[in-house]
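Input set for joint prediction.
Command: fold jointly, output tokens.
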Amino acid sequence: MTGATAGLGAHALQHIAAQPGTRVIIGARGSGRTVPPGVEVIPLDLASLASVSDFADAVTRRLGGARIDVLVLNAGMQTSNAEARSAEGYELTFAVNHLAHYLLARLLVPRMADQGRLVITTSETHDPAITPIAPKTLDPRALAFPGKGGFGTGIRAYSASKLCNLLTAQSFAALGSVTTRQITVIAFSPGLTGGTSLGRDSSPARRAFVTLLMRTVFRLIALFRPEYVMGTPERAGEALAEVSLGAVTPPPGRIYISLVKGEPKFPDPSELARSRDAQDRLWRASAAMVGID
Ligand SMILES: NC(=O)c1ccc[n+]([C@@H]2O[C@H](COP(=O)([O-])OP(=O)(O)OC[C@H]3O[C@@H](n4cnc5c(N)ncnc54)[C@H](OP(=O)(O)O)[C@@H]3O)[C@@H](O)[C@H]2O)c1
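tokens >
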């Protein structure tokens, strides 16, 4: 699992690690992380593709011949502008949220058990019908190498990276090797969740502005758009665990689960997220960027 050290993922980890007979390995940056007893921690910095490869190698070695039943790719970040770059020079939000997870899934899905589950955390912010600034077209190169940063570019990069998570989940779900092995692929949107550290890199002034926005404008919008009702990290984490452990599954033929007012719903993703052409273009561009076929 990625993204298990903070926010809603830390709550999900508590539930997952509490399952009897479950071995849990998480990827985390830094050292000295506090995790539930028995959880194994392997270094992983998603801002570096070399770190992702090292992590996948270390997991494979540690597993020996054992298979992964559930692969949860939950880590995510958001910046106030799109100016930071990953170790390989890609825009950081795109690199961490999408590219690193794309590579990790390409490396670890072959190590998964038949009838396993691959869960990728996305967001309803990918959808222009819910978030007007969400992308209406896809240009992977422009996401990897955006022009000048500035106001609004951080949230746009975030929303686009979450679209990439959904496109990638659908591409994996359509892979022959995944369908033959009956691996269930799910794109999980936890919904607007307060009290996590997602915006931690923003300046105090920006964080105060976002808090004000959430307490005023978002509350008004929430009166007629339930997707704007703010949930808790506890419930979002519990729902991620339910999805990961198989207690909640989308209806046949669907892969998108969106938590709305604490309840799992199965809406259509955005039109662009459903585009086979966009899925294929992102898959090919991402493969070239991470240096695999
Ligand atoms: N909060 C919301 O409203 C919301 C809404 C929709 C979707 N989501 C999605 O939900 C997921 C979890 O978000 P959250 O709100 O719980 O955020 P959070 O509290 O900031 O947690 C993010 C997690 O990702 C990890 N992470 C970030 N950058 C990393 C890196 N370079 N290498 C390794 N791990 C890294 C963090 O590790 P550290 O402990 O090292 O920081 C942390 O475990 C994300 O995918 C986010 O996009 C959140």
